[in-house]
Amino acid sequence: MYSILIYLIIQASFMFLFILTGAILQFIKERKRKGNEKIKLGDLTVIIPFRDEESRIKSILNSYENSLKTPAEIIFVNDHSSDNSVDEIKKHLGKLPFQIIQLNKNESGKKTAIQKGVLHSKKSFILTQDADIEFSSNYFSNLEKINQDNLIILPVIFQSKKIINTDVILANALNYSATGFSRPVLASGANLIFKKEHYINYAEIDSHKHLASGDDIFLLNAFLKNNLTVFLCADKKVAVKTSSEKTLKNILRQRARWISKTKHVNDLYAIILAIIQMLISSTYPILIIYGVMELKLLDLILFILIKALIDQVSLGLYFIRLRLIKEFLFLPFYSVIYPFYSLLILINSMLLKQEWKGREIINSN
Predict the structure, then answer these.
(1) Rounded distance, CA 255 to CA 258, Å?
(2) For the segment 109-151, what is each residue's pLDDT rounded down to a tens digit?
(3) Which residue among 230, 262, 294 closes a domain?
(4) Where in the sequence is the domain holding 43, given as residue range(s)?
(5) How far apart are CA 16 and CA 39, in angstroms?
(6) Is the distance from CB of 311 to CB of 219 less than 8 angstroms?
(7) Beta carbons of 100 and 78 less than 8 angstroms apart
């Protein structure tokens, strides 16, 4: 029984003092944030790298067709697609200010595609998007209400009925709280704005171009390293939505890809937070097994309820802010399966060769 009490004290301390307090601090930061200039669509270039996205690209193309406002430039960068992605783009966006540029034979990868798009841009600000996302018709109208900054991390929401994707929300919630206390540790290139001049001066793409993944995390750390301000925005009005992988196998491979890019950054702040979170999460099912064998049923139920209450209260602000009500209600169940799920991801990342679009995540050159 003492081990359970100690666990609840440690878990409550971390969840209330760091997660909840950090979320409140970040919420206040967003509300008090001031700036002289808002984002201007006339000075914004959207860069969308793509490779064989014919079956997935229609969502973003429909979003642009239905958008009330559009940016000055939309640049699609073709990374050697072998399907009809280019034809789909031309068919849908004929009336919009878009262009398609091709990577050369000796060029490949998302980082190179973004870099080439940035160099083709004639504007001061860049917005990167993934080719499989979608957004509301008011998305760009709401972007104009945000103050400019060197780097702006915008929300990405998974569209899925699978509870297993709750891990993405938890990672973003942890990132939200981390930003409230200090700075963000995660960013997604699916919805990311940055100043072109700082990208050119500080991104240092050549130092990690051999890693086929991680354009967003490396860019975030390059900006932080050079003391450039970074703003994390959790306003759902400027969120984009992306579809989840369909099968458990592909979900595990996707998470393993994410691990492969973050482990090369060597961010001590992120590592410490990940270790604390993993220890707390992995201990929970062990204590449940212990409780089944050693505790009275009423005591076990009380333990589970207290643990669930701590999670709900400390994570509620972030989940409700993004209106993720269903995922919020399923948190007690997910907290039981999460440690086993994380172990599957870890094993998968160590034993299997990670590929994306037919390429290894870590190239040999």
Answers:
(1) 5
(2) 889 999 999 999 999 999 999 999 999 999 999 999 999 999 9
(3) 262
(4) 36-262
(5) 35
(6) no
(7) yes
